[in-house]
Design brief:
alpha+beta, 15 helices, 782 residues
């Protein structure tokens, strides 16, 4: 009886642990009531058995294998670090970047950038590029939801996977992976996967052949595997900020053995050898991933680089041509890709389609028939039948021709996880340049925080990273307690605040108006995100002390009543003489500006130590009176294409009014004349593409309502509104950074976010403008 043995003071037992294993005895070494300190004392003895290790000392192993924490860290409630299935030498997993958060229904997948070739680097890991369908698994107990890349229900294609439980040791989890079908040699086969989904198009190399369509029973007998390669959420904690390698180690530790699910393993350092091995195995390619990178939802990132061994492209079906003989019903597909807002012809695809798929395709095309061509410009194709561009297919091809057509393209299958509006031509980026840019961008991010005091307020930064403002929660409570005016202590500064209930922003829609108290709260809360874009720079402000419904005024000079701790910088203008600009280096200064009724914040593009050397090149799409926001987006997408072609890193944002602006971080080696000339070159190219939308006239009246691509903003003392700055309009809209992909979002609006709604967006996506604070770039020749 263990209880009797304990009462007697000696218990013998056997342990089967990672560190402690073998036969043990625990013996009471003091009296029944202990020593003078009234504590019982026991001695643990390891018998001299086959598991005993000479010289082993428990003090040499102070951390838990499960959580990676010491006793002191457990008491301090430090974040856990664990990998229960890994060898002891690899057991610790750093989860300092994890944060408590409710599990979302869906996380928009991170996407890889196409690179030119293989490379080896110890900072990177290398995975197989699986020839399958990207699928996100959202696990809630026994309920599993499967989503495609564009959040379509993938369970209808893979019901056996959706019904399979018990493959992950978690109550809640979000797993990123790829579903593949495997052939008799264990290799991924996209043709078989088409059979599984019932969307078969044969994987032919020229002619397709005509094997019979498998029955439902045969389809369910085809082996499929879910290659799980990333873990985004686990039991109440978001992991998107945890470094990739740590996420993968944690994923491996919680995956259980299952015939349908495998851990997507990888190699480290030896990328070139891994690519060669993939080539010999006739695999699709390899994905190189930066080991310390966060997960970037919805973003095509250079931290993931795909190296393809076969040329493939997703294309939109825009029409079809009749064939001859048995293929008269459908000879070839007319395919296209998006270029800006236009759908451009990309050639024809006829080979690789079996007879049954050809017949079924024709039925779907007839349902989507239209009279006119969706392509711009319209290609000269005799006898073309046009359709609504909704079907997306994968093709293999030999090369792109100089006029942008696919050569020797063969149908590979249907794409279930991509919207037609998102299909664009993939252009590879030079590998070394892309890898260097990814590492530099990550180096520019704030270090992932470890343990944070509970007295701090958290504000999302890039990729969900978090910056904090000391004592913010208490300061906001104190602000709410002040009636109409009083002294407010914030960030260690005492500030006289007045007219707190004065309405600064009239309501928009049915919302309540916003007061000075609301603006003070917004500035205090956003300081962690906003101050880095103002720090070290002179800032011009537009003040509306009586609210935005009254006339405001621009202010460069600090007023005489400014507190002595407010940062300032004197610049001697040739025409205006010396001006004392405010320099927003701390939270309290930002809050003081709100007290002054400063709504718009316009920082210089150069820093105070070198005012004639800009750190940004600015692209300003300034809409005319007749310019619609759809036309603004046309211009923004063209800039996106141009900058991507040039390999330039840039950060777009909506202005909060009607336009879109793009900031390009540059090395401090250029003059304002240099940046103005470069931006003018890019802008002229964009303007020549859509001349009906653009005017180069300075005066608005002379523009006849058209937009101006204002490259002249690249000049000393010329400024654009800061990211996250409010704008003087009803509802308090904000100038908000966006992802490039959001230019294609039908719900995007230039004033979509306000000081009320922006904090929720930041919590979701982080500070998307943070790359603008990264290393400067050299501007490539145009």
């Amino acid at each position: 009886s263990p209880a009797a043995a304990l009462e007697k003071g000696e218990l013998k037992f056997r342990l089967h642990g990672e560190r402690l294993t073998g036969r043990f005895t625990i013996v009471r070494t003091s009296g029944r009531f202990g020593d003078a300190d009234n504590r019982e004392k026991w001695l643990l003895i390891h018998k001299r058995d086959e598991a005993a290790v000479a010289g082993w000392d428990a003090a040499d192993h102070p951390t838990s294998l499960k959580s990676g924490r010491t006793n002191d860290e457990v008491k301090a409630d430090a974040p856990a670090r664990w990998d229960g299935h890994a060898p002891a030498a690899e057991a610790e997993i750093d989860l300092a970047g994890a944060r408590e958060a409710p599990m979302p229904d869906f996380v928009e997948p991170m996407r890889a950038t196409l690179a030119t070739g293989a490379f080896s680097d110890p900072a990177w890991l290398y995975e197989v590029k699986w020839d399958g369908y990207r699928v996100e698994a959202v696990v809630r107990g026994r309920d599993i939801r499967l989503w495609t890349r564009n959040r379509q229900d993938a369970a209808r294609y893979f019901p056996t996977l959706a019904e399979a439980g018990g493959w992950i040791e978690a109550e809640e989890a979000i797993v990123d992976g790829e579903v593949i079908a495997v052939d008799e040699k264990g290799r991924p086969d996209f043709s078989l996967l088409q059979d599984v989904t019932g969307l078969r198009g044969l994987h032919g190399q020229g002619s397709a052949g005509d094997r019979p369509r498998p029955s439902k029973e045969e389809r369910t007998s085809i082996p499929i595997v879910y290659q799980a390669f990333d873990l985004l959420h686990l039991d109440g904690r978001s992991l998107v900020n945890v470094p990739l390698e740590e996420r993968k180690r944690l994923l491996r530790s919680v995956l259980r053995e299952h015939q349908l699910v495998r851990f997507g393993s990888h190699v480290v350092t030896d990328g070139e050898a891994f690519v060669e091995a993939a080539r010999q195995q006739e695999l699709e390619g390899v994905v190189a991933k930066l080991r310390r990178s966060p997960y970037e939802p919805g973003r095509r990132s250079k931290a993931w680089l795909k190296i393809k061994l076969r040329r493939e492209q997703e294309v939109v079906v825009a029409g079809w041509l009749e064939g001859q003989g048995s293929h008269r019903d459908l000879g070839s597909l007319i395919v296209a890709v998006h270029d800006g807002d236009r759908l451009r012809h990309a050639g024809q695809v006829g080979s690789g389609i079996d007879t049954k798929t050809r017949r079924e395709l024709r039925g779907r095309l007839d349902e989507l028939a239209r009279q006119d061509s969706p392509l711009e410009p319209v290609p000269r194709l005799k006898g073309a039948h046009w359709v609504e561009p909704r079907i997306v297919v994968r093709v293999e091809f030999a090369e792109w021709t100089t006029d942008g057509l696919l050569r020797q393209a063969a149908f590979k299958g249907f794409e279930i996880g991509k919207a037609a509006s998102a299909v664009r031509r993939e252009r590879p980026i030079e590998t070394e340049k892309a890898a260097t840019a990814a590492e530099a961008a990550l180096d520019a991010e704030p270090a992932a925080p470890s343990r944070r005091p509970q007295t701090r307020n958290r504000v999302a930064r890039s990729g969900g990273d978090v910056l904090e403002v000391d004592g913010l929660a208490a300061a906001l409570e104190a602000l709410d307690a002040i009636p109409k005016e009083g002294t407010w202590t914030v960030a260690g500064r005492e500030l006289r605040v007045t007219n707190l209930d004065k309405v600064l922003f009239p309501p928009r829609d049915k919302e309540a108006p916003l007061t000075k108290r609301d603006l003070l709260r917004y500035h205090a809360t956003m300081a962690a995100v906003l101050v880095p874009y103002l720090k070290g720079r002179g800032t011009t402000v537009q003040r509306f002390p009586n609210g935005v419904a009254a006339k405001g005024f621009w202010q460069k000079d600090l007023p005489g009543h400014a507190p002595p701790w407010v940062g300032r910088w004197t610049y001697h203008h040739r025409e205006e003489g010396p001006k004392d600009y405010v320099v927003v280096d701390e939270q309290a200064t930002l809050v003081w500006l709100a007290q002054e009724g400063a709504i718009e914040l316009h920082p210089w593009t150069s820093r105070t130590d070198e005012p004639d050397k800009p750190t940004f090149a600015l692209i300003d799409i300034d809409p005319g009176e007749s310019t619609t926001f759809d036309e603004v987006l046309v211009l923004a997408r063209l800039f996106r294409t141009a900058l991507e072609h040039l390999g330039v890193r840039a950060a777009p944002k909506v202005t909060g009014k009607r336009g879109v602006q793009i900031w390009i971080p540059i090395e401090r080696r250029y003059s304002f004349d240099d940046t103005r000339e470069w931006v003018e070159g890019v802008s002229r190219a964009v303007g020549q593409t859509v001349p009906d939308l653009v005017s180069w006239e300075w005066a608005k009246r002379a523009r006849r309502g058209r937009a101006r691509l204002d490259f002249t903003q690249n000049a000393i003392n010329k400024t654009l509104v800061a990211p996250y700055s409010p704008r003087p309009s009803a509802g308090a809209p904000v100038s908000v950074p966006i992802r490039w992909e959001e230019l294609d979002d039908p719900h995007l609006a230039p004033d979509r976010w306000t000081i009320r709604t922006l904090p929720a967006r930041l919590a979701e996506v982080g500070d998307l403008f943070a790359p603008a604070l990264g290393p400067g770039q050299r501007l490539p020749a145009l």
